Amino acid sequence: MSQPRSVDADVVIVGAGLSGMIAARTVLAAGLVPVVLEADDRVGGRILTEDVMPGVSVELGAQWIGDTHARMFRLADELGVETFPQYDEGETSYDLGGSGVLRENEFHTRFADELAELERVLRRLDELAADVPVEAPWLAPRADEWDVISAGTWYDNQGLSPVARTLLEICTVGILAVPTVEVSFLHLLFTIQTCGVTAELFAESEGGAQTTRFVGGTSEIPRRLAALITDHIVLDSPVQTIEHSTDGVVVHCRGGLVARGRRVIVAISPTLAGRILYDPPLSGIRDQLTQRLPNGSAMKAFFVYDEPFWRADGFNGQLISDVGPARMSNDTCIPGDDHGVILLFLEGDQARTFGRLPVDERRAALTAELVRHYGAKAATPEFYVDGEWSDRQWTRGCYNANHGPHVWTTYGEALAAPIGVIHWASTDTATHWSAYMEGAVEAGERAALAVVDSLP
Ligand SMILES: Cc1cc2nc3c(=O)[nH]c(=O)nc-3n(C[C@H](O)[C@H](O)[C@H](O)COP(=O)(O)OP(=O)(O)OC[C@H]3O[C@@H](n4cnc5c(N)ncnc54)[C@H](O)[C@@H]3O)c2cc1C
């Protein structure tokens, strides 16, 4: 990871997140020379493990993979990163629709009808999503109809009771990190289809997306990947301008570094890709697309205690609530360490509202939420940390790009289609587990193989 003033390569790659580094590795394996230009002083992008105390690390970014994340399992295996299962014993704690705090069994008994309604709607979503072609969602037979309404409007029209509707909102915001009123219904169906079925998206057990964690932290993946291609990564090099022609690209970074290549792969979220200056300018449709793909809003807040006291009380560390700032939580203890670590999610409007508060106020509000669910012991953590992603210059929100109504059908074809020598990667362009690490790997491989194919 040296700091040259100019560099020549076959393929210039913008961004050393998972997608960019996988693209670089794929290009290298094909016998071509990549150079990865990374704006930040580290690799990994939306993956960020932070050591907070001896023996305790927290995932401010990506944390889990699920059973169908085959590329990620393969990658972890290749890199020698071991995995362990998410803790999932005990009951979830609920507080919804004015119910007060209820243990899972109580909640399921009292709200059996509402849960059946929810199940009915999830099955319907699975049926409809099956009609969405993930390579081209705008070609779904009912794309025009589905893309002009929000997911929230569709939910509102399902005749749901308030508790079922609230649960649906919480589950969906937990994935898309924006209120459902901002999400195209077609985009919701696309998201479901890229992941399989709603059960895989929402569940933490039985094949869900959040079943498995990485020993040593998720950052072990980008760290070890970077070690394999270290001579091809340049840090602290924000790409500002991409000059492109049929002959190739000249990429200019802040600080003066210039990289020349035959192709470029832009492996950053569409909204950040739209902030790069292209010379000559890109088509109107591509620019209008990037004007319309804002990243979601999510924060993770971690409390570290001397022990996971909630486990002894029969809780799994998960809460689902429409009362406090956090709508959901997880037990994120590290196996082999005695500390109790609990993670609270702030997503969508919750992240927007509480993310703007001073950290002490945010921490106090979240502490009160934990105390309501898990009792007085929750009031005295040893440590607190949270991570706000919209403040980070090289991410500007998460988990991924949101497609509001009328974007897929009007501009969708410009999302991943190469423009001359410019190719697009990042999880936001994936067709399998888009928004997840799995999608980042898929998109990086897809873009790199397309580049390799296009070069003599
Ligand atoms: C809080 C949070 C929780 C998440 N939880 C999960 C999870 O549990 N499971 C899961 O699978 N996924 C999760 N994700 C999503 C996952 O992190 C992403 O899907 C994945 O890491 C995206 O990788 P990427 O390479 O596509 O993009 P990024 O990680 O965003 O990488 C882009 C890189 O480009 C750099 N960059 C940006 N602009 C420029 C520029 N102009 N010039 C040069 N470099 C630039 C950035 O610094 C960054 O390193 C989570 C994400 C967040 C933020």
From TrEMBL:
Entry keyword set: Oxidoreductase
Residues that hold FAD according to the record: S19, E38, A39, V239
Molecular functions (GO terms): oxidoreductase activity
All residue ranges annotated as the Amine oxidase domain in the record: 18-451
Pfam families: Amino_oxidase (PF01593)
Superkingdom per UniProt: Bacteria
Cofactor: FAD
Classification via InterPro entries: Amino_oxidase, FAD/NAD-bd_sf, Flavin_amine_oxidase, Flavin_MAO
Binding site for substrate: F345
Keyword Cytoplasm: no
Recorded family membership: Belongs to the flavin monoamine oxidase family.
The protein, known as: Monoamine oxidase
Origin species: Mycolicibacterium hodleri
Lineage: Bacteria, Bacillati, Actinomycetota, Actinomycetes, Mycobacteriales
